[in-house]
Amino acid sequence: MNVTLTVNGETRSAEVPPETTLLVFLREYLNLTGAKTGCDIGDCGACTVILDGKAVNACLMLAAQADGRDVITIEGLATREGLHPLQKVFEETGALQCGFCGPGVILSAKALLDENPAPSKQEIRNALAGNLCRCTGYVKMIDGIQEVAETMRSVPTPALPAASKGEQKHG
Amino acid sequence: MKPFGYVAAKDCEHAVALLAQYGKGARVLAGGTDLLADLKFSPHPPPEVVVDVSRVKEMKGISLTDAGLRIGAITTHGEIIESSVVQQVMPALADAAGVIGAHQTRNLGTLGGNLMTCVPSMDSGPTLLALDAQVTIAGPAGRRTIPLSELFVGPRRTSLQPGELLVDVLVPKENLNKPTGFQKFGLRKGQALALVNAAASAWMNDGLFSEPRIALGAVAPVVIRAPKAEAYLAGRPVSEEAMAEAGRIAATEAKPITDFRASAEYRRDLVAVLVKRCLVAALGRATPNQKELAS
Amino acid sequence: MADVLDVLEKDHVATESLRRSDQALRLPVVAPPTSLPLDPPLVPQVGEQTHAVGLRAQRPDSRNHGLGLTRYIDDIALPGMLYAKIKRAGISSARIVRMDTSKAEAMPGVHAVLRGSEIPTNVFGTSIVDQPLLADPIVRQAGDGVVAVAAVTEQIAQAAIDAIEIEYEPLPGVYDALQALEPGSHKVHGGDTNVYARKVIRQGDVEKGFAESDRIYEGRYYTPGIEHAPMEPFTSIADWDANGRLTVYASIGRITLARVDLSRTLGIPISRIRVIGTVVGGNFGGKNEIRHEPVLALLAKKAGRPVKGRFTRVEEFIASTIRHAFYMDYKTGVTTDGKIIARKVRMVLDGGAYCSFSETTLGKACILSTGPYVIPNTHIEGQVVYTNKTTAGSMRGFGAPQVCFAYESQMDDIARDLGIDPIELRMKNFFRDGSMTSTGQVLHSVKVAESLQNAVKKFGWEVR
User: Fold this and answer.
1) Same domain, A60 and A93
2) Is A167 among the domain residues?
């Protein structure tokens, strides 16, 4: 069957068997491998993507269910101008170790911040309850997300690219 | 996953026609969170066709009608949490929706799916049972409305016949704003099945309990009411002691099992504690006038 | 004398002028890389404590992780690649009587089926070589692979292994480490015992120590098996070139060990094997040895195409390794003022069906089982036994967390009984600089008392 949807702002289309999950669709048909296969049953959150503004498990829905809808994957966050503030802060705070959970966590956090620009620690914890991490733990992620929330509230424009920081300092 | 056919139903009638045509070879997909987990790991042959009802407009949304609050079967838990109407007239249902799975599953999973999967630990069941909810069922012979309690038959078994489809859930008008509390106890806060969950509702006018309803999950083959505890409360002055006693009585009405999550004794203890907490939460939601009379 | 001074003065002048010219020659400051912390200095100085606590540490690879650009093994696909599935026994102790793979072989899309009997050397292991890649004919754990299939899609591979009929003759089993010690218990690997490794450590005279003790405490402690549950399931790709050289891409932590095991099981020289360790999505000790790589290699050889195998989450739990479950008996003699003078430890480790890293785990557990405490008389006895459960192997700490649970639990019991503050009891017995461990190692730079003091302050012990 044909599935056509918007991924990271572009219309994408593929012929797939009906039992294709959104995760398989993204990874194998569109070669967007940022969403990961961790448990394949909706427990670990490594496959998290944003569907019409809401974080969902791509492994727990059929590609057909997403037909005609809008999907954001981790590949759609950074721009030519620079990293998404969450990506930047996760790098700076060392929130990612093996990194396998990272794309899912970042997208869960983005979905949260899009709806709630000033989340409390508990709200962040709730938003991340469906994202498991086995290496670093959650403290640095939560701190990082709060930090981003604060910066985004004070500076409405996206953060500057990483290189410009050095230039300002030494130039 | 094993191969299966897929049809996106246009409306209820289309879905019902497909379900009638394929009979036991058809499975309904609403959010898919339970269905896909089942289809991925089930040793059984796959369904002939998966009928996707997630685009049926009639089955989606929350609205106040003359009959009461109507919630479409494919309304997601996330939508229930965010609904200002639910928050206003039935906050306990939002409490229940808020502890199902995790954020990602709540954005996919639906109220109808939660009810129709019919596991004893379902979090949507107790609150709706405590509010005398009714469900609309569409079938080849037309529509019928039954009390929610008649939907549940056994673990993963409902009273729906082949070809039938759950359309919506209605909480009758007279029970809107009825003080209700919901409590869940799982092994962790997120992404956990309930060891026990419970809901209790009661009017507390004139400082007395009236029309009390107590519903318990994960302590019997289906979500059940606790009629003895309800009878004890009816007409009794609102007090903490009465709430605790109702909990103790409800514990005797539960028929929990021992499994790898918890022992039957532990679950029974939880029933007593959770029922009391539900009643305390319900009192917290009573109007100031009701509260004053209770103190 | 004047001459000497002259020379010295000349030297002095020369040095100064050299310094000046050095300064003059120095190039303008180059901006250091912005991604690295500039303060403190990047290279720690000898004997200097670097400031790390409280500072943010950045990983050089984390930017790609956050961008979703890191290529984990499952993000890699080779042209023409097939997908492998391994059928798991689902029964924990049995003999395979009959296996019919004909239906699977006839399925369109199935390119290769592999049985244990086709593997040149169907056994591997890191110390005791006792684990088959595909059980043949004895199954010793439910997660034992029995037959493998490679097909054009994962879905067809799954359908093919579902279609393979296997008849088992169930055998008795043993499912508890203590029961495995009993003479009449089922012997998982035959012979007359399930014990496959032992360790004894003795120091001083433990019986004399108990005789001199004011009080003696005895307790049994148990810790269960734990799965590593890395976020990334086991995944590998095997690919042969036309010259008969094998390349294995795997998220494996010890690629050299993997080459040795591949060489031994496949019967080809190690020089023909290349293992490419991909970015690991969590290891925790569970990805330290080969798992299914030789099976994938043989499937790839049969099919003439690259083969990828990925564990399901269920396979992660039943067919990988887990942390050893421990039974620990602790007997400790103390004086009334809380000084430990004798400790006897007996422990039995549940090794599961195969050895894996059991010997290392047993060794470390025994060495560390008396805790960070000065105990003049110790006697430690450990053994690890086979059971028909999931194989236990290496996991963070190699047995150290299990014994820590036991000795610290007992320390609390002792403190409570003697009416001594639990922190004080520990402070009284801690290792100090120059202390000797139960194995005779003399310790230096011992910071344990200081660490606990700091921790006590931070977690607010006083105001508990």
Assistant:
1) no
2) no
User: Is the pLDDT score of C38 beyond 60?
Assistant: no
What pLDDT does residue C63 have?
87
Q: Nearest-CA neighbor of A131 among A56, A51, A22, A31?
A: A56
User: Hey, what CATH topology would domain C177-227+321-463 get?
Assistant: Aldehyde Oxidoreductase; domain 4 (3.30.365)
Across the interface, whether the CB atoms of A18 and B41 are under 8 A apart is answered no
Residue C63 has its nearest CB partner, among A77, A91, A166, at A91
pLDDT digits (tens, 9 = 90+) for A88-100: 999 888 899 999 9
Rounded Cα gap, residues C6 and C9, in angstroms: 5
The C-alpha atoms of residue B180 and residue B157 are separated, in whole angstroms, by: 27
CB atoms within 10 A of CB B44: 8
- Which letter does DSSP use for residue C384 in this model? E
A68 and A93 share one domain: no
Q: What is the pLDDT of residues C301-343, one digit of tens each?
A: 999 999 999 999 999 999 999 999 999 999 999 999 999 999 9
Query: Where does a domain end: A50, A76, A102?
Result: A76
What gap in Å lies between CA B273 and CA B183, rounded to an integer? 10
Predicted confidence band at A158 (pLDDT cuts at 50, 70, 90)? low
Say yes or no for a CB contact (<8 Å) between A55 and B107: yes
Size of interface A-B (CB pairs under 8 A): 92
Phi and psi dihedrals of B130, rounded to 5? -70, -10
Take residue C177 and report the two structure tokens written for it: 């480490």
* CATH number for the domain running over B5-52: 3.30.43.10
Q: Is the pLDDT of residue B294 over 90?
A: no
Pairing of strands A54-57, C325-334: unpaired
Q: Quick check: B190 and A61 CB within 8 A?
A: no
Angle between helices B264-285 and B240-253 (to 10 degrees): 140
Q: Considering only CB atoms, which chain A residues are within 8 Å of B40?
A: 40-41
Q: Which of chain B's residues have a Cβ under 8 Å away from the Cβ of C156?
A: none
* Cβ contacts of A111 on chain B, cutoff 8 Å: 103
Provide, as residue numbers in chain B, all residues whose Cβ is less than 8 Å from the Cβ of C155.
1-3
| Average pLDDT of span C256-277 | 96
Give the model confidence (pLDDT) of B21-36 as tens digits. 999 999 999 999 999 9
Is residue A153 pLDDT above 90, yes or no? no
pLDDT at B236 over 50: yes
Q: What type of residue is C174?
A: V
Q: Cα C419–C425–C429 angle (5° rounding)? A: 150
CB-side neighbour CA atoms (13 Å) of B26: 24
Does C344 touch chain A if contact means CB atoms closer than 8 Å? no
- In CATH, the number for domain B58-175 is 3.30.465.10
Distance (Å, rounded) from C-alpha C310 to C-alpha C154?
A: 9
Position C24 scores a pLDDT of 42
> Rounded CA gap, C272 and C263, in Å?
8
Q: Kindly determine whether residue C279 and residue A27, on different chains, have CB atoms separated by under 8 Å.
A: no
Residue B288, pLDDT score: 72
Mean pLDDT rounded to a whole number for chain A: 90
pLDDT digits (tens, 9 = 90+) for B244-264: 999 999 999 999 999 999 999
